[in-house]
Every structure is written in C-alpha cells, then in structure tokens.
Predict the structure.
Amino acid sequence: MRGPNLQIAGLLDTLCPMHAVLDRTGHIVHAGPTLCKLSPGCAASGRRFSELFQIRRPRIDGSMAALRAHAGEKLHLQIRGAVRTDLKGVLTPLPEYGSPEAGGMGPAGGAVVNLSFGISVVDAVRAFELTSADFAATDLTIEMLYLVEAKTAAMEASRMLNLRLQGAMIAAEEKAYTDQLTGLKNRHAAEYLLQRLLDSEQDFALMHLDLDFFKAVNDTMGHAAGDHVLREVARLMVEETRSGDTVARVGGDEFLLIFTRLTDTQCMQDIAARLIARLEAPIAFNDQMCRISASAGSVLSCDYAYPVRERMMEDTDIALYAAKQDGRGRHVAFDSSMRVGNRMARPIEAKRRAED
Amino acid sequence: MHGLINRAIERFVRDTYGRDTWHHVMCLAGLEFSEFEAMLTYEDHVTLDVLAAAQDVLGRPVPDILEDIGTYLVSHPKAEPLRRLLRFGGSTFTEFLHSLDDLPAWTRLAVSDLELPQLELREHAADRFSLTCQARHAGFGHVIVGLLRALADDYGALVLLEHKGARKGREIIVIQLLSMAYASGRQFDLGARAG
C-alpha cells in the first residue's frame, strides 16, 4: 500500500477483493488481496495499472484521462505477463479534489477499478490456486464453480444413459428387421431396402425363391427337421451371395434375394442355377436325409423404364409361377410377354395352396 | 424416487458387498432389471422394495444400511464427485451445517427433478445443533447421519450425532460439535476436478 491513509481500502478488501485504487497518474496505490494473488506485488511496485493490465476493449490508451472517460462501462482486460486470463472490469472515478487526509475517499483525481473473472473463472481458479476465501461472501463464483461441476457430472450420467438407450434401440431395430429362426432379414427389411435402392435409382436384381417339397419334410419328419432345413438353406444362400446382397425370409419357405448392381440376365441365370443346385443337395438331420429343391423367378430393375416396388414383386411372382409350372427346381427370368400371355396369373400362394 | 437415489443404493451394495449380492437383492425385490439408471425416475415402492430386500440379504436393519449409504456417498473413492459437490457448501464444517437448509435448492440447480428432503438447522449453542429432516418417506435422516459423520471426518471435525427418531415424516438429528480441528481432514481444492 502506498497511499498514506486509505479509509476505503479495508472496506473494499472485504466487498471486492479484486479491486485496485489508482492515483491521479494511474499508479496503483492499493490492491485487494485477490488481485495481489493474480499480480503479485502489484500494489508495492508503484507501477501504473495499464502496465500490469492490458485494456483490450474499449480500444483506448491506458491513460487516466481515457480510463476516466469510460467510467461505469464494462472493460475487457488481460493480465500482462501471466497465464492468459480474461478479466472484466469497471472503473469509478474518485473526486477531483479532497485528499484522504482531508476526509476524501481516496487519491484526488484517481479511480477505483473492480475486476472479475467472468467466464474464464473455472480456469483462473485453477491457474491461481484460489480458494473460497479469495471471493467476497456475496460473490456467486462458488455457486458457479459448483454448477459447472454438478452439471458436468449430470451431463455425463445423461450421456451414459443415451449411449445405453441408443444400444437398446439399435438392438430393437435389428430384431425388428431380422427373421428370428434363420437370422436372415425379414420382409419388412427387404421392402425397406428395395425402396431405398429404388429411391436412390440404383440398379439391382430381385429374385423370389420358393422351396419345393419343403412341406413334405415338415409333414413327415417334423417341425424340428423343417426348422433345421430352413437354417441350412439360409446359410447356403448367404454363402452363394455377395456381402452386399440381401437374403430375406419373407414367408414360411419363401425368400427374396436382392443382388445390387446386377443388370445381366445371363448372370442372374447362372447365380440361380448354382443356388438351386446347392439347395438340392440332401441335408442331413439326425440320421435322415432331407431332400428339397427350389423354384425361383427374377426381374432386373434395368428392364423397367420406371421401376416400382409393387410391380417388380408382382413380376417375380409371375416368373416364379412360371418356374413352378415348368416342373419346379428351376429359375425363370421375367419377360414382359408373361404378363400379356398370362393375365390370369395368380399369386404364388394360391397356387401352392391348391397343390398342397 | 429419482434414479440417482436408487443408484446410490445400488453402488453402495455393489461396491461394499459385491455384484452377486446386489443381484441377489434385486431378485428378492422381484424387479425385472438389475441396474438402475441414474437419470430416470422410478416408482417410490421400487426403492422401498429394494431396501427391504437388502435388509434380508445383508442381515442388517434398514436404518443401519441407510446410514452406511450416507457414509459411502462421502468417503468412497467412486463417490468423489459427490463429496466435492457437498464441500462447496462451506469451508468449515460449521459453515457446511449452515448450508444444509439450501441443499435441496443447490441440488435442484444441478438435477432439476431430484427431490431431496427439506432440511432445517437450528443452532442451540455454538457447538450444539439440531437438524430437522422432512420427506415423503422416513429414512433420509439415517442417510444424513452417515453423510454428516463422514463429512465431519472430511473436514477434520469431531462430532457426536444422534438420530432422535421420526414423527409424522419428520426426523430429528442432534449434532454436537466436540472439536472443529480434531484432525487435518481432507483437502478440498476448488480448482481440482473429480474423476
């Protein structure tokens, strides 16, 4: 303290421990205890306020005249030569006349500047190792630090909850799109995927495959055998398709296969022939052999000017029906002539019901 | 009751008696899940069922368990964030006691739907206090006893605490302060961050 008799100093130390009392020339004559922690020796050095604190806004020189001209306004400051710490401040001018000795408040023509950390408080408390005693009892800093810590903990708890809920949601979605018996996609998933391919105008081939003689396996060897066959069939079909393709079980023994980027009928024929050949290999269950086959009908999206999902599904049905008619165990690629020549094409379900 | 309260019971049982014991408690309570979500709210009876089951599994009366939960919340390393939040209440144990009236408000500031019992501190002498604890369900008072005992340790103060029983949902705790600086206590660094 340089001021000989600063009556207000004790008062200010309690009420605003981050204040500085400046004299007419802008030299610090007294500084509050917390400000002394931030800028050690600031009061004893007899240095000017603007040498220790840079006034960043408003953009003024650090002269007392300029400072006093901005009395009452919010000042943005930084401590020079310390960890970068942003401070807020406000300045009140002291009367032009009347020294403390004569009963005045402080150095005539001087000023009192009060500082605060503002939003940088969390880092500043750590950087300057401040404690609750460094803040006035009325200061909300402690509450603010509490809030920051409490909200961080609460946010973390909420984040964990969100992660778990997201995991549960993905699992539920996965379940909603999966056929539980075979692990293949279900009809819902297949329709969704078809629509997505159509919406994004990507070419693909769609095959509707129906097992032959499956009902006989179920009837003579039991449901356990039937389920086993379905799982084996699913495994074979996944093996015979590429990772980007989709195999979905859409009915008891009906499957939809989607081959992305496939635009060639011959290629489709080859895949179908290989698939059917593999499905015709006997499948062992306990000590018995289950023998099935498959019929399939397919369409290519590139054969349509404006491919529509319902229409494509219907056409695979017609092709499949033709394959069944043709003696089963075979694949038929859809041809528009089928629709013209077979106006009475019934859905495959009706056909099978009649046969079974 | 708030998930944080249920979660406190869960963490206490798991960290003190092990995961198997906790699953045993949840089975006995007849609940279909084994872990509480801190940020969800559960029916009040869930908490009461879990405490009743804990009493049977641990072979200890509910008030004792509640008191241990209070102690756990301040002294277990896994509960360090909570200890820190409580220490914001004051720089001495007496200051902390005087901050208890505001504890529900401080808590709501952080988690708006967490309802804590109303607390009211009376100062009978500089070293004698009584704390009234009012809540929908009696029992919080025992948690507070455990919490205060551990916090007194944390501040390095020596206290005698006595739960005077409950009447019409009001529990009264008598606090006698024997020494403010009995031991050195634990550090509370404003700028440090838990976890």
